[in-house]
Amino acid sequence: MTTRTDRPDFVMGNTRLRARWHTLLDGPARARLAGRDLPGLVAGLRGTAHGAFLGAVTGTGRDDRPAVLRAVEERRRTALRGVGQVYRERAGEVVAVLLARYDLADTLTLLRGAAHHLPEEDVLAALHGVGAVTPTAAREVVAEEPEAVVQRLTAARLPDPGTARALAGAWDRYLLHGDLPELETAVARAASARADGRLAELGRPAERLRRFLADERDAANLLSALRCRNAGRAPEALPERLLPPGQLSVGALVAVAAGGGPPPGLPAAWRGAVDRALATGRAAELAGELEEHRAQQALAGWRTGDPLGVDVPLGFTAAVEVEARELRRVVLLAEPGSGEPEGPAGPAATASARTPRAGVPA
């Protein structure tokens, strides 16, 4: 493999993202919105970048809470699409790998939706649609039968040609065993290998992103080990469900699945969350805490990392995700408006509007 030595030029794209930073709601701004009732929250969002997505919503109608959640989600998607639009040439290649995490998540969502025969519109609503799997492309792929989704993805060479080829091969095995997690893992492994290969070719300027993606895979693998442990499954079968490891070795993860303690190589910032999860078995809580740790790491890169490198798009992407995640929580907790019913038609009914995590199989 040849490593390229010419440095990607992030300057123009980074300058544009820095100019957009003020459109994001920081912690104090989100805190000022928290505690308002739904009409007050809508009024507060009108003067932000979210206002363009609110339409005629007032916060007093029966369906306004889901509409506000959709506005938050569409603002998130629009901001993320903008990241890919401001970089060119080699810098654009690096950022494309960053956004390919969302393409993988969308590919898995399309497969899961078809495997469970979910309505096409529900599947489309759950997609990110910010990279190669655009909303238009997804609409041409989505189906309620998994074989149709696989055929359409491979014909369109989505999410990328290499992963599409791996999907076609994994589908033959799925027909024999009907093992959806095995199919998902094969697709995720192919996408991860492609990302690592591209970043290796791009060399040192992409190293920060390479480490971030390796940490993301380590987090996914650790969660797989904890779920294996919780379910009492044979630890020896775990390697078949793991993504290419970063700092956490396959052997160390198998030991976790077998009932062992925290694995060697665990980042210090993860230790408290992992200790709690191993004691309680609460994988969902661990997933949220590790996601937050990785987001804060990326945001630290925005503040103190290389201003001429990949730290800027990585940090901006993390900031967009944090903003959306916190705003969803604020919307779900807001007191109802006068026209919104209490109980299931309120916050509880919209909990499913949360966006699936990018990059790794569940």
From TrEMBL:
UniProt cross-references to Pfam families, sorted A to Z: vATP-synt_AC39
Recorded superkingdom: Bacteria
Keyword ATP-binding: no
Alphabetical UniProt keywords: Ion transport, Transport
Coiled coil: none
Gene Ontology MF term list: proton-transporting ATPase activity, rotational mechanism
InterPro entries per record: ATPase_csu/dsu_sf, ATPase_V0-cplx_csu/dsu, V-type_ATPase_csu/dsu, V-type_ATPase_csu/dsu_dom_3
SUPFAM superfamilies (UniProt xref): V-type ATP synthase subunit C
Transmembrane domains' residue ranges: none
Keyword Ion transport: yes
Gene3D superfamilies in alphabetical order: ATP synthase (C/AC39) subunit, domain 3 (1.10.132.50), V-type ATP synthase subunit C domain (1.20.1690.10)
Region (Disordered): 335-362
Signal peptide region: none
Family: Belongs to the V-ATPase V0D/AC39 subunit family.
Protein name: Vacuolar-type H+-ATPase subunit C/Vma6
